[in-house]
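Re: the 179-residue chain
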Amino acid sequence: MAAAIDKFRFECPCKPSAADHLSDNNCNVLPETDRQTVVKTMGGDPGTVYDVKLRVRGLTEPNTFTGGTLQGQRFYTGGSTSTTGYTSYMMTVADPAQHYFFNYSATTGHMHFLLDYEVTVKIRGGSKVTFDVDGDGSKPDGHQVSNFDKLVVPGVPPAPDFYDGQFVQLDVVSAEPTK
């Protein structure tokens, strides 16, 4: 049912030239990296809402969000971006209508952190699922915090090498009808 979103990956690479690495912790990105929208369709029965368990892995810069609910350390349900100069990674489910952010932090700064957590979201069969980089009114600015610490996400390509930029990968662990 959730094959369309399994292994979905936001990729936000830095431009490769040394001149595009603005400092020890910033890099330039292409416009299509700075603002991305990808729409997928959930499989399954349109009469059924599924509990879709996702494993979220990657590395991102922080962003702050307000007006929603924090689940765990990094997953934020509802609300909106409250610091627009930092990258946000967002998923919007059409039915039941809800949006989610993957890179919550209480503060922003020029740092990266690894993501590796599981979360369950509800998605009706046949619903549109929209993935956005810098969605929800965040303002792209042509650069992002680079992976200056050369962090590696174990078991996720390009591991054992580090990724020069940021990414979020979603792996579907299970998709079961909501009880």
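The first strand starts at residue 8 and ends at 13.
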